[in-house]
Design a protein that fits this description.
Elements: H1 6-16, E1 27-30, E2 37-43, E3 49-55, E4 59-65, H2 66-71, E5 81-82, H3 92-102, H4 105-114
Antiparallel strand pairs: 1-2, 1-5, 2-3, 3-4
Helix pairs in contact: 3-4
Length: 131
């Protein structure tokens, strides 16, 4: 699976040139076998360092290496995946606050959908099959 389309990369790079803005996440990555969700809102000019909300046990705002994310090898030859139907809809600060209150990005996503703050998507989304 392509983890980042050219359009998403361009959007993340543009956001990275405006670091003091509360951006809406552009892309969601997840571990299809368990813990690990990343919402990327920015990409540094180097094309590797992303900024956003990461949850590998507890949701935190911060930076991570896209190259390292791509290199993660999971059982059965799988890797980290991109949620093809993800729509961020709200700024990263809202995601962070909701995830901290809910305990995880996945629980925050459910709360934000129920509250109507996120666009409704079909129930057969990529991640739901793996949760």
């Amino acid at each position: 699976m392509i983890l980042l389309t050219d359009a998403q990369r361009a959007h993340l790079l543009a956001n990275g040139r405006q670091p003091d803005v509360d951006h809406i996440p552009v892309v969601k990555f997840f571990n299809p076998f368990g813990a690990g969700v990343w919402l990327a809102a920015e990409l540094d000019a180097d094309g590797d360092i992303m900024f956003g909300l990461a949850d590998i046990g507890y949701p935190e705002l911060g930076s991570w290496s896209f190259d390292e994310l791509c290199s993660i090898r999971l059982p059965f030859g799988m890797g980290i995946e991109r949620d093809l139907l993800f729509t961020g809809d709200v700024p990263i600060s809202v995601w962070a606050d909701t995830a901290r209150q809910a305990g995880s990005i996945r629980d925050a996503e459910r709360l934000l959908y129920r509250s109507g703050r996120l666009s409704i998507r079909p129930p057969s989304d990529t991640e739901a099959r793996h949760s």
